[in-house]
Amino acid sequence: MSGFIKISLRGLSDQIDSPSIFPSALLFSDNDEFKTHLENRSKEIQSVINDLSGINKSTPPETVELQGKLSQLLSTEKTHLVQLASLQEEKEILEDRLEKASMRYMVAEKKLDRAKSATVAKMEQQALLGASKTPENSGVKREESVPNGVESNEGVAELEESHHKALAVTQRQKEQLELLESENAKLMKQVTELQLQSTKRTDEDYAGTELFKQLKSQHEDVIRRVNNLEAVNKELQEEAVKLRAERSAYQVQVETDVSVAVGEKESLLATADKDVNRIRGNRDELLAELSMRKSVQEQERESIKKTQELAAAREERIVALESENQRLKIEPGTSSPSVLDIDGLDADGLRARFSELDRKYKMLNDELSSLQSAFPRYTRLANQKVAEFTALEEKVLRLTAEKAKADQKFFAAMKSKETRDAEVRTLRLQNTKSADVVSQLKESEAASRSLIANLEKQLSESKDAIVTLTNASRAAQQEATEGKLLVDGLKNQVTELTKLVSDKDSQFASSASANRQRELEVESLKATLADTKKSLEGWKSKSLGNQSSEFEMLRSLAICTVCRKNFKDTVIKTCGHVLCKDCVDERITSRSRKCPNCNRSFGAQDYMKVVL
């Protein structure tokens, strides 16, 4: 039994590891890369479509190459999408198979561990040897005598067991042969039908295929898009003609408005120039008047200062004259005594004479001081007047020289003015002539614009005709390329499908043969199992009365103390207690990660499998 489990597990592991059943290119690491590859391809195709839609002129050979590349990219994208859908379906199917195989593998592994455990083997040996222990422990020596029919009974049992196996195997082989004959007949009928269908293919058969339906729907979508694009193209052409007419009318209107605005701005500019010249003349006059008034005010200020100084000198002179007048009023009544008279005067007379002389002396001193203060002022004013007169004379001489120069400049300016007036007259004549030329040029420009508008209309019509022809040629080329690509794709798909069918047939044949062999093994194992069950029941009936307390104690030690169903096969590393695997897994999944014996916590990796 353990050998059969090992063989089945090995076959499952080989099937899981084989790249034909589980392609890793789409299941795990390369799935994102494949998606990015498809996204990059779609971006490139969109960029090429945008570049082609932006081109409205004649189609060079580069555009034809780009169209071919675009059709190729579209076909490759479609094939990639079909492959992606089929591979996703295969992926889902293989995931289901993987889950089922993993479940079977886990069950088989548990059974194998159970079969390999030493405790189960010991218990089975104890159960088998329980009957033989009682006569050994009785203490009485007896001769072991074998009855006469034992060996023959054992041989008969073995023969019956082999006979049952052979009968089960032959019965299963008959059933398998019948199934194979029925399947062979069905397959022969299908082969004949397929041969007839392959030799005589009709349009209905092609029309019933999914590829034809997909191509038909894609063709209808392309025709619908082409019709929509033609309608949109016509509308855009009409709008373009309207917009060109509006543009020409708007250009004429803008030019007239600009010419009128330019004339108005020129008239306003001329009036502004006149106003500026008038304002400048007024400014010059006002500045000259201001400078004259400033000079007059300066002269008035100087004259006021001088009059004030003269007034101050006059007051001092008046004071001197008043003192002189007083002195002269006193002197006529008195006469200066002679020296002899002074000698004859007494002390009182001398005192009176001294006081009188002292008063006169003081008056003379006062008059002299006022004269001293007035004299420098008069001299300074006199010097200033002399300097002013000399400056005025020099200024008069300079102004006369400047007047002569200004007269010369005036005469030269008058001459240049006459020449400028003549130039202005000639320029005005030239301006009138240039205005006539400009009007003629505007008329010719309007005529040329009308011609250009007509030529643009003709050009747009010719462009539209070219665009329609190019679109028709593109559609034809695209249909041809799509047909070629579809034929190539169908051929490739047919070859791939034939390869897949052959691979599947070989796989199916190998799996069917392996299945038949396993069914034979299963039937033989069922027969052996039935015989072993019978012998086990016999041994159990024999050993029911021979179980001892020691066997119960050993059994209680080997069974899990929590569930009382499974054997102990898992130890907790943190505390050392031994439980069954189911109880440990249940505690880890329910997050009550504590030992039931000592309540010591443990982690998800703090346990290991043991063999009792």
Could you characterize what this model shows?
The chain is mainly α. Among the domains are: 1-116; 559-612, Zinc/RING finger domain, C3HC4 (zinc finger) (Herpes Virus-1). Helices cover 85% and strands 1% of the residues. The radius of gyration is 69 Å and the shape is elongated. Residues 1-29, 131-152 and 333-340 have low confidence and may be disordered.
Secondary structure blueprint with pairings:
Layout: H1 2-17, H2 24-27, H3 30-53, H4 61-116, H5 118-137, H6 150-199, H7 203-208, H8 210-330, H9 339-344, H10 347-543, H11 549-558, E1 570-572, E2 578-579, H12 581-589, E3 607-609
Antiparallel strand pairs: 1-2, 1-3
Which sequence of strands runs across the widest sheet?
2-1-3
Q: What is the molecular shape?
A: elongated
**Helix content range:** over 70%
Tally of helical runs:
12
Q: How many beta-strand runs? A: 3
Poorly predicted ranges: 1-29, 131-152, 333-340
Structural class: mainly alpha
Give the rounded overall mean pLDDT.
73
Oligomer status = single chain
Radius of gyration: 69 Å
Strand/helix succession: HHHHHHHHHHHEEHE
Q: How would a textbook summarize the main sheet?
A: 3 strands, antiparallel
Distance between the termini: 21 Å
Strand content: under 5%
Q: What key attributes describe this structure?
A:
612 residues; Herpes Virus-1; three-stranded antiparallel β-sheet; E3 ubiquitin protein ligase; EC 2.3.2.27
In short, what is this structure?
It contains 12 helices and 3 strands, in the order αααααααααααββαβ. It has 612 residues and is mainly α.
